[in-house]
Amino acid sequence: MDLDEQIQILIDDAPQDGVMPRVMERAIAPVLKSFASGLQHLEYHVLQTLDRDWVLTTLSNRAQPEMEKKVIYAFATLKDAADFQGASKHPQVIATPVPVIHTLFQMFVLEQADSTIFLETPSNLTTGVEVRRTDLHNLVQKQLQQSGTPGKSASEHLPPDIA
Asked: Where are the domains of the chain?
């Protein structure tokens, strides 16, 4: 499924309230597509619990251990996801293939996550591309202002259960 097809699914699944589909088309979709275009894959494997909650990993800064951030890892292959920190040994965790647009969108609405780290190269679990939630949010806000979409913030436009 290409990026445009992935975006169309998000638009089609948006609440049909007259506002949300327009916000998706004019502000959210262009930002998600811009970020996704810079990544190598159309689909990534994301670790989830059996309840379908995304697994967050807390990282701390080596120089300043009190500085922490919560990230979602998105893996290029199922094997990489299974190999990550012994995930395959945890029966409550599964690796699920997720389209890249949906991965970005989920991270955008999942307020606990600070970033998603896309591990682009199979078998390389040390180097990835980080997409920060604040960057997505700020660019969507800018798109909303430029497109003349109603003045609410992006997070106010998004119902809590949209993802």
From this structure: 3-151
Please give the pLDDT value at position 18: 80
Residue located via tokens 């379908």: 52
Tokens standing for 34?
A: 């811009």
Question: What's residue 62's pLDDT?
Answer: 85
Sign of CA dihedral 35, 70, 152, 52: positive
Identify the helix (H) or strand (E) that includes residue 45: strand 43-49
Q: Does domain 3-151 have CATH number 3.40.1350.90?
A: yes
Question: For residue 128, which of 110, 116, 113 has the smallest C-alpha distance?
Answer: 116
d(CA 132, CA 114): 6
Q: Model pTM?
A: 0.85
Q: Is residue 70 within 8 Å of 56, Cβ to Cβ?
A: yes
Q: Could you give the CA distance from residue 115 to residue 96 in angstroms, rounded to a whole number?
A: 18
User: Which one is predicted more confidently, 135 or 156?
Assistant: 135
Cα separation, 26 vs 96, in Å, equals 29
Helix (H/G/I), strand (E/B), else coil: 148: coil
